[in-house]
Design goal:
alpha/beta, Glutamine Phosphoribosylpyrophosphate, subunit 1, domain 1, Rossmann fold, 3 domains, eight-stranded antiparallel β-sheet, six-stranded antiparallel β-sheet, 18 helices, 26 strands, 34% helix, binds 5-amino-5-deoxy-1-O-phosphono-D-mannitol
């Protein structure tokens, strides 16, 4: 959701801000704006509804171009529609102060009423909660004459989630930010400093970053960075190196970020496994006590797994589907009960958790508000917490006892692809680690499973070679109005993910079902010509569900369904009943999803592209969902 950039230095801030906003476009937005203080100390702002280019075309560069202090914003509308008035920045202190905001100020109506009572002369120019914050900071500034102090006084009165950046014409060369339950990261340069919603905002200028903790205020100038808590007490922050460079977040010749990111899936798995498998065993040093991720909690025990008798996995969307696969793997390998729950449902139903519960959150961005709030609930109720996350310095890992980072690299397309396979790989590593700790699998079996895991990148690369054939299939189906996806056991989350991809990218009604559930209702949807993707398990293996899935195929084929099967190479039992077979290499049951999901991702992407849709930024969606 909203993208935020702040800059103080010697470069032309307009260029830095627009470059940062471009890199943050992937978060999803519907308007954009910037505020710049020019060398004469005048404040210039511009904001426009629509794409960033509309703002760029409208900039008064003659006035702004040489300013070297500025803030920039892309807005994803919450309070008030996506129009010029509601776009950020908002102004305070008679137009001398500019503010940008990500998040939702829950008590804004109350604060607005108070403002109108105490200052009836106040003119509101937008419907936003953010403008109320700008006006309040402006009033405090008039009183105390210091921007950081004014912001500190206001944030103490705000409820909800926010990242705020402010600048004031009377304090040129200063940008102040504050955050609660919403992301903000510092970029450290040489004679220049940056602020951003995530490191993508400034990675083309510096790879040195500092994560800002919960309820903290940061002041940047060209030469200094100061961080305090909301009471004004200085806090120490940890610096980290950004693991990828600006080129990693470029399209690099691909037609879309999504196409590029699917092509990177083998590397995403390999990089997530790298260094974590040693002599046939899992080595996750990040779970050691010394590796605790909680700021200021040196006493934290890292991730002590002793006495854990239950696991709860929390995530949303694609991340939750990776959690379903983790459930199957952990229960099978480590013999611990695992529940998977959508983060936004979890904390509102009085879940039973305690110190013997391990809560694992999974999130590509590490900023999903629903998951963050669920993790906080888990912490408050004494659970142990582990985060599986793809973004360094993000909030969710910082709130957790330990983190296993996936190393998928930056995922820019809104639809998650390579992050999913990396999440599953990380979960499987953890599941096998847990099996070793609990002694539920012999060492040799763990070693064999790790060998299979390590073979997956190469196998997946062969699946991706079928891209053109899948594209052709998608091209034939642009008039399709609904598609069903079936799978059983490990194929079920793949079916759900295939349906989600098609909905979000191609705007086609799609449903994923457990194949066994079909005859309990959904089979009524089958009519002649209805396309149904079926994820077919391998025919090998003692407990293979293969015969049952083949029966399910026959049941729907008898009613006219068009069968699009993803099946093991050479699976002769499927051929007579399938209209199309997309072959995948032999893999055991739990590893098959990592091979079967890519064809469904490619299908959804190519169908959307064939319909002329924007596959990287589908309508209404945001990459990082930072409001509840
Ligand atoms: O950043 P997260 O992994 O926490 O995001 C969770 C979901 O919002 C995300 O997976 C979403 O479902 C994607 N659009 C799926 O493609």
């Amino acid at each position: 959701m909203c993208g935020i950039v702040g800059y103080v230095g010697t470069s032309k801030s307009v260029e830095v801000l627009l470059g940062g906003l471009r890199r943050l476009e992937y978060r999803g937005y519907d308007s954009a704006g910037i505020a710049v203080i020019d060398p004469d100390g005048d404040l210039h702002t511009r904001k426009r509804a629509g794409k960033l280019q509309i703002l760029v075309d409208d900039l008064d560069l003659a006035a702004m171009a040489n300013g070297s202090t500025g803030i920039g914003h892309t807005r994803w509308a919450t309070h008030g529609g996506p129009n010029d008035q509601n776009a950020h920045p908002h102004l305070g202190d008679d137009g001398k102060l500019a503010l940008i905001h990500n998040g939702i100020i829950e008590n804004f109506a109350e604060l607005k009423n108070e403002l109108m009572e105490q200052h009836p002369e106040t003119v509101f120019t937008s419907e936003t909660d953010s403008e109320v914050a700008a006006l309040l900071v402006g009033l405090e500034y008039q009183r105390v004459g210091d921007l950081a102090e004014a912001l500190r006084l206001v944030v103490a009165r705000l409820h909800g989630a926010f990242t705020l950046l402010v600048l004031h014409k009377d304090q040129p060369g200063v940008v102040v930010g504050a955050r609660r339950n919403s992301p903000l990261v510092i970029g450290l340069g040489d004679g220049e400093n940056f602020l951003g919603s995530d490191v993508a905002a400034f990675v083309e200028h510096t790879r040195r970053a500092v994560a800002i903790g919960q309820d903290q205020i940061v002041t940047i100038t060209a030469d200094a960075v100061t961080v305090t808590d909301f009471d004004g007490a200085p806090v120490e922050s940890e610096e980290f190196d950004i693991a990828w460079d600006a080129a990693a977040a470029e399209k690099g010749g691909w037609s879309s970020f999504m196409a590029k990111e699917i092509s990177e899936e083998p590397d995403a798995i390999a990089n997530t496994l790298r260094g974590r498998i040693v002599d046939g065993a899992v080595r996750l040093t990040e779970l050691d006590p010394a590796a605790s991720t909680k700021p200021g909690s040196a006493a934290s025990a890292g991730l002590d797994l002793t006495g854990v008798n239950r696991i709860v996995i929390l995530g949303c969307g694609t991340a939750a589907y990776s959690g379903m696969l983790a459930k199957y793997a952990i229960e099978k390998w480590a013999k611990l009960p695992v529940d998977v729950e959508l983060s936004h449902e979890f904390r509102y139903r009085d879940p039973v958790i305690d110190a013997s519960t391990l809560v694992i959150s999974v999130s590509q961005s590490g900023e999903t508000m629903d998951t963050l709030m669920a993790v906080k609930y888990a912490v408050a109720n004494g659970a142990r917490t582990l985060s599986i996350c793809n973004t360094q310095g993000a909030t969710i890992p910082r709130e957790s006892d330990a983190v296993i980072y996936t190393h998928a690299g930056p995922e820019v397309a809104v639809a998650s692809t390579k992050a999913f396979v990396a999440q599953v790989a990380a979960f499987y590593l953890f599941g096998l680690h847990l099996a070793a700790v609990r002694g539920t699998l012999p060492k040799e079996e763990i070693s064999d499973l790790l060998d299979e895991l390590q073979a997956l990148p190469e196998q997946l690369a062969t699946v991706l070679e079928q891209h053109d054939a899948i594209k052709q299939l998608a091209g034939w189906m642009t008039d399709t109005r609904a598609v069903l996806f079936l799978g059983r056991h490990a194929g079920f989350p793949v079916a759900l993910e295939g349906a989600l991809k098609l909905k979000e990218l191609a705007y086609i009604h799609a449903e994923g079902f457990a194949a066994g559930e079909l005859k309990h209702g959904p089979i009524a949807l089958i009519e002649p010509g209805q396309p149904v993707f079926v994820v077919v398990p391998s025919p090998r293996g003692r407990d293979s569900l293969h015969p049952k899935v083949v029966s399910n195929i026959q049941e729907i084929r008898a009613r006219g369904a068009r069968i699009l099967a993803i099946a093991e190479q050479g699976d002769a039992a499927v051929l007579p009943y399938a209209d199309v077979v997309i072959p995948i290499p032999l893999a055991s049951t739990l590893f098959e999803p990592l091979l079967a999901v890519a064809p469904l991702q490619i299908f959804a992407m190519e169908l959307a592209a064939a319909k002329g849709l924007d596959v990287d930024q589908p309508r209404n969606l945001a990459k990082s969902v930072t409001v509840e």
